């Protein structure tokens, strides 16, 4: 369900009051709350890699500002265009959901391929898209019939060898030994949201009675206590802080137009200087020659006059 807004502020955003029902948590759960991750609807979210943890007993206001990044593709840059990723090596296991390319989705796809190649099965944490996983490999065993297999086997959590294999691949993935980071450049067009977070105690001491009365009147709750409210209920407000957005765009610092312009300018400068220098040197040489010629003529005239005067005497 989409909700469009043309105004800023908490009352014009998304407001949710949630009951996390801690009584359903397993004993190994260390944190109570929900994970909130802001992302474009065309991009696969990965809450395990980011997001905000919102705990019970508080109202959390998240003021968001859209940040759009535009990078240069080859040859100026190394980003991946979403249109080029559909039929290329950057096709991800999330493409079947209509999601666009992202470097994080590419890394998860790389991890799933490594699990599939090393363990002959598919990690249940991520999709098993047969077209992508079998695109450049044929590593399934005979029971799965290789590339003609109607299904991809799932890694069995009760199989010790299978879990040991996937654990080793996962460890190599997090230590960057698989090389997935170097194989997955960022997307050329990317949208992120910068956030400003503020919290407050909710519900307040005076409001909690009214809140308990309201939820007790519903069919799902009966005789709700103050402790249950404080330990299980939370409120989230997500809204735009401003309606404008931040655009971060990269562009070539030196392109062909500038190169040709600089070459033309340098040629014009140096050729112009050379021509002027030749003219100036020629003019200087001519002036020196004229000056010497005039001086020589004056000397000859002086000598000639001296000889004439001497002979006449």
From TrEMBL:
Q: Which InterPro entries match?
A: ENaC
**Keyword list, A-Z:** Glycoprotein, Ion channel, Ion transport, Membrane, Sodium, Sodium channel, Sodium transport, Transmembrane, Transmembrane helix, Transport
Where does the protein end up? Answer: Membrane
**Topology relative to the membrane:** Multi-pass membrane protein
Query: Principal place where this protein is found?
Result: membrane
- One MF term in the entry's GO annotations: ligand-gated sodium channel activity
GO CC annotation: what is one? plasma membrane
- Note the Gene3D superfamilies from the entry: Acid-sensing ion channels like domains, YojJ-like
The similarity annotation says: Belongs to the amiloride-sensitive sodium channel (TC 1.A.6) family.
According to UniProt, the name of this protein is Uncharacterized protein
Instruction: Give the encoding gene's name.
Output: 106068547
């Amino acid at each position: 369900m989409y909700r469009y807004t043309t105004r800023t502020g908490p009352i014009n955003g998304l407001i949710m009051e949630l009951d996390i029902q801690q009584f359903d948590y397993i004993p190994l759960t260390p944190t109570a709350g929900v994970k909130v991750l802001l992302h474009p609807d065309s991009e696969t979210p990965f809450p395990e890699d980011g997001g905000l943890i919102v705990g019970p007993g508080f109202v959390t206001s998240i003021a968001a500002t859209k940040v759009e990044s535009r990078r240069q593709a080859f040859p100026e840059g190394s980003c991946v265009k979403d249109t080029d990723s559909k039929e290329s090596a950057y096709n991800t296991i999330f493409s079947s959901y209509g999601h666009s390319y992202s470097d994080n989705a590419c890394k998860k796809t790389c991890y799933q391929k490594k699990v599939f190649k090393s363990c002959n099965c598919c990690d249940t944490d991520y999709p098993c898209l047969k077209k992508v996983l079998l695109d450049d490999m044929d590593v399934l065993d005979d029971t799965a019939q290789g590339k003609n297999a109607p299904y991809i086997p799932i890694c069995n959590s009760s199989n010790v060898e299978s879990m040991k294999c996937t654990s080793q691949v996962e460890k190599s993935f997090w230590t960057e030994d698989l090389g997935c980071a170097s194989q997955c450049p960022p997307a050329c067009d990317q949208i992120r949201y910068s956030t400003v977070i503020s919290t407050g105690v909710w519900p307040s001491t005076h409001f909690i009675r009214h809140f308990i009365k309201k939820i007790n009147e519903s069919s799902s709750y009966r005789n709700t206590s103050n402790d249950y409210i404080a330990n299980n209920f939370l409120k989230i407000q997500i809204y735009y802080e401003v309606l404008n957005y931040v655009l971060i765009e990269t562009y070539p610092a030196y392109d062909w137009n500038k190169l040709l312009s600089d070459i033309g300018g340098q040629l014009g400068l140096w050729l112009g200087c050379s021509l002027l220098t030749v003219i100036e040197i020629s003019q200087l040489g001519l002036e020196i020659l004229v000056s010497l010629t005039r001086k020589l003529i004056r000397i000859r005239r002086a000598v000639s006059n001296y000889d004439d005067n001497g002979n006449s005497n």
